[in-house]
Amino acid sequence: MLKKLMVDGGRKGQGAKPAFAFAGRLWETPRFESIDMLRPQMNQDPGKRGPGLFEATLGALVGAATGGVFGLFAVGIYPAIITRDLTWFFKTPSLNLISCLVCVPVGWLLGWLLGPPLGKRFNSPAVEVAAGVVAGLVPVGVIIVLVAVRA
Q1: What span, in angstroms and rounded, lies between the C-alpha atoms of 53 and 116?
Q2: Which letter does DSSP use for residue 91 in this model?
Q3: Euclidean distance between CA atoms 1 and 88, whole angstroms
Q4: Does residue 17 contact residue 6 with C-beta atoms inside 8 Å?
């Protein structure tokens, strides 16, 4: 971990003692590892750590699925309700696809952030699924509001 410069006075072997020690990298020092604010979960047991960002959790999967399905129709929901014409859902296929491609990763991220902590708090996978649904509907709602403001 710490690199040491050895001074032996020209002798090799027994007389070598460290002149000074310096860290190869800042985060290799024991003091930094004890107060690491960016990765506090690294000091915990692997069983107590939360899932990583790209690890699939129930909340993340449900958030991505909800965001994807409803994201396909998010652009057309407001005009379809206002005009009472269901063909608005299919009048803008490129915007619908872009909306879907935006809603899936945002739903995944919000589901990953909300699902596991709430699932652990209430000790129920159903709560994690509900959090994933809500997380998937957040970007859809934002797109609907943006379309309504633009109209």
Answers
A1: 12
A2: S
A3: 63
A4: yes
pLDDT by residue (tens digit) across 32-60?
A: 555 555 555 555 555 566 677 667 889 99
pTM for this predicted structure: 0.66
Q: Are 64 and 107 in contact (CB under 8 A)?
A: yes
67 and 140 in a common domain: yes
Residue-number span of the structural domain to which 78 is assigned: 58-150
- How many domains does one find in the chain? 2
Consecutive H or E run containing 99: helix 93-122
Distance (Å, whole) CA 8 – CA 119: 59
In a domain, 53, yes or no: no
Q: pLDDT (tens digit, 9 = 90+) per residue, 72-92?
A: 999 999 999 999 999 988 898
Distance CA 113, CA 135 (A): 9
Q: Which two tokens stand for residue 46?
A: 């692997």
Alpha carbons 85 and 54: distance in angstroms, whole number: 40
25 and 65 fall within a common domain: no
